[in-house]
Amino acid sequence: MKHFKRVLITGAAGALGKVLRAGLADIAETLRLTDRMELGSAAANEELQVCDLADLESVLAATKDVEAIVHLGGVARENTFNNILNSNIVGSYNVYEAARKNGVKRIIFASSNHAIGFYDRTETIDSNVMHRPDSLYGLSKAFGEDLARYYFDKFGIESVCIRIGSCFPEPMDRRMLATWQSYDDFVQMVSKSLIAARVGFTVIYGMSDNCESFWDNTKASVIGYRPKDTADVFREKMFAATPTPDPFAPAIVYHGGGFAADGHFEDQ
Fold first, then answer.
1. pLDDT digits (tens, 9 = 90+) for 190-203
2. Which positions ≥6 away from 236 have C-beta within 8 Å?
3. How far is Cα 224 from Cα 242, in angstroms, rounded to an integer?
4. CA nearest neighbour of 236 among 211, 263, 203
5. Alpha-carbon distance 217 to 108, whole Å?
6. Residue 61 pLDDT grade (very low, low, confident, very high; cuts 50, 70, 90)
7. With 90 as the cut, is the pLDDT of residue 1 above it?
8. What is the rounded distance in angstroms from the CA atom of residue 187 to the CA atom of residue 72?
């Protein structure tokens, strides 16, 4: 069913951008896809546009005549502050400001569990907790969530901020047994976030129905999200393939895993 005339996906050349390019193909009459990277050939219902999110004029053009935005674009993991600043912080500001100027009323923001990565894994937290970023990357996602809150409170632009856990074809380590989200569940979550009647400002966790979890995802019911997959089917395989970790290692102690354990990215 076509719910929109035109939806924009930023960062469409990335791993999750490619997942949504296929998974959201039927949600709008036209999908506008932007990235700094090569996007290949356009399907019949696609518009492809090269866009540097750090360039406001480029973002203004990308957001013209769209009804909703799925904002995935930016540096996807830890990097230098300068790269994080331009791609994730300036880039996200430009997306929200361009949305305001062009009358876009809803944005789905790809946040990250690294915005709260320094909570202890013995704590089950909901989305109302204070930010505790574990990296410059996590800091940029905390900024993006606060930006979304500001643009809702001041200008009425609705946002669903998805704190993505570990979205891969299957879990790649023991931590991901708690943080994993399948591609199908991710597509469902984004789709429900787009079509829900009202979302206001909502923060939810990108996770499947895993028996082990760090996060209370009750707020996902606001959009009608019902995960169909679980990391539990991979548990025996993962335990057999990996050694028992040191329970006091920082990568095990904190929600953010290796991001919390790593030093400052720019140190030699």
1. 999 999 999 999 99
2. none
3. 35
4. 211
5. 17
6. very high
7. no
8. 13
pTM: 0.97
Q: Which residues contact 260 (CB under 8 A, 6 or more apart)?
A: 117, 118, 134, 135, 250, 251, 253, 254
The upper half-sphere exposure of residue 125, i.e. CA atoms within 13 Å in the direction of its Cβ, equals 23
How many Å apart are CA 122 and CA 259, to the nearest integer?
17
Give the chain's mean pLDDT: 97
The CATH class, in words, for 4-261 is alpha beta
The per-residue pLDDT for range 78-119, each reduced to its tens digit, is: 999 999 999 999 999 999 999 999 999 999 999 999 999 999
Inter-CA distances, 71 with 19, 46, 119, 171, 183, Å: 14, 17, 26, 24, 17
Burial annotation 40-69 (CB, 10 A radius, 16+ → b, else e) = eeeeeebebbebbbbebebbeebbeebbbb
The one catalytic residue among 93, 96, 119, 137: 137
Instruction: Write the single-letter amino acid at 20.
Output: L
Q: Is the pLDDT of residue 268 over 90?
A: no
Strand partners, 69: 8, 107
Q: Does 137 participate in catalysis according to the annotation?
A: yes
